[in-house]
Amino acid sequence: MQTGKSRWTVLTADWMEIQRGCGVQTLSRVSRKLWPSTHPAGAGRSSSQTRGRCTDQVSKDKALQTVANLSSAQIVTATVVKPQTQFPPPVRVRLEHTVKPFAQLQYTTLFGPPPPPPRPAAVTTSVWQDRTIASAKLRLLEYSAFMETQRDRDTHQHLFVHMGPSNPSFDDPILESIDVRQIYDKFAEKKGGLKELYEKGPRGAFFLVKFWADLSCDVEDGSGAFYGVNSSYSGTENISISISTKVCSFGKQVVEKVETEYAKLDGGKFVFRIHRSPMCEYMINFIHKLKHLPEKYMMNSVLENFTILQVVSNRETHETLLCVAFVFEVSTSEHGAQHHVYRLVND
User: Fold this and answer.
1) Residue 266 has pLDDT above 50, yes or no
2) Structure confidence by residue, pLDDT tens digits, 285-294
3) Cα–Cα–Cα angle for 340, 70, 38, nearest 5°?
4) Class of residue 195 by CB neighbours under 10 A (exposed 0-12, middle 13-18, buried 19+)
5) What is the pTM of this model?
6) Is residue 113 situated within a structural domain?
7) Domain annotation covers residue 228
8) What is the tally of structural domains in the chain?
9) pLDDT in tens, 111-149
10) What are the entry keywords (predicted)?
11) Virtual CA dihedral for 182, 187, 191, 197, nearest 10 degrees?
């Protein structure tokens, strides 16, 4: 049986250019419309309340000046993490049910209220399309990034972000939409960037995910913890796929990981599973440095310019099967990691 392969590529970036825009910036009107910094209702205090923890304007300005030197590109350079310990396959960990942000926040959409859903008999597309991260040929089943530690003989897993399987029906509303042109500058715009990919299409394969990441865990440099990513997909064809994951800072690509996975027939469908794929050292260092910031609003200031672009394509034909753009904020919810999904459109 063939197994998937992966490789990491670290790009040499002009760090000074990346740092140039590194001052803490307030969100633009467009960004506020796309993903307001306010967390889902009841999930934590407002940013104004958090900022109120600076006792006066002088101390606040001093704190912000500290964060001004911390882009995702610069933040990872100070500390080197020891190689990860490869644990044996972990015991099954029970995951809490994913709690999504409260339904239908007032985000800007490009469409009016959707029409009543058609009867299944009259539908020509899958129930998954327009309701989940799915194109005509591939559907994202699950995605998670985690830290795993061992204490004595027990294995403990903390989920930074998580999207679990879903089973939508035709009665469920379609996903909200965002104009893809409003986020071009947050992702690599050169060859292979979001703009080029979207223009090539197919346009039904593009999505945006806003993650509220759960950082309520203890991370220690050199602790021997394992940092990994799990993802799985369901497809209509017996093919091999290529998964490219690009980390961007201020719209510039700094790291790319490329993995290859092969289809396995499961229940009449072709399934692709990537299990315990190790995070690169860049991402591990970034998480550690982010955790060392004293306030969550400081973390969010750094995350405002940190994005990830994941592209799944047919390995032989290079056809784009799915493209998912990720943006992040720190969760203040007692429920942990949360997320919200949008379709990317250009109408």
Assistant:
1) yes
2) 999 999 999 9
3) 30
4) middle
5) 0.71
6) no
7) yes
8) 1
9) 455 565 554 444 446 888 889 999 999 999 999 999 999
10) DNA-binding, Nucleus, Transcription, Transcription regulation
11) -60
